[in-house]
Design a protein that fits this description.
Largest sheet: none
Oligomer: single chain
Radius of gyration: 16 Å
Strand content: under 5%
Helix content: over 70%
Order of helices and strands: HHHH
Number of helices: 4
Amino acid sequence: MDFKNLLAYKKSFDLAMKIFEITKGFPKEEKYSLTDQIRRSSRSVSANISESYRKRRYHKNFISKLTDSDAENAETQTWLEFSLACEYIDMSTFNQLISQSQEVGSLINYMINNPSKFGVREIIIN
């Protein structure tokens, strides 16, 4: 299977693209701060999922990259909080994006807790 077929990847990529479209409407003065930060963190979720899948031969690397992905997802949620507080997005948009982000987080944690379902074999050395 290709990493592009992973549900966590598909949903995180979709979320990053939604965030990209929404942030096009953010004020110009946010270009190098909030806009850049939320785009980077949301894109990093997908990037780390793809990296983890390529490193699935190594149990610890797989988990490590997924943990990074989960952290980037949490960072994205924080930037969404700022976007709401600054009134760049409305409550409806915020709730939709947070819900999708939480779903992505659940999928990432499923992968972390079930690595063998993704082709990871833990090698035990005595």
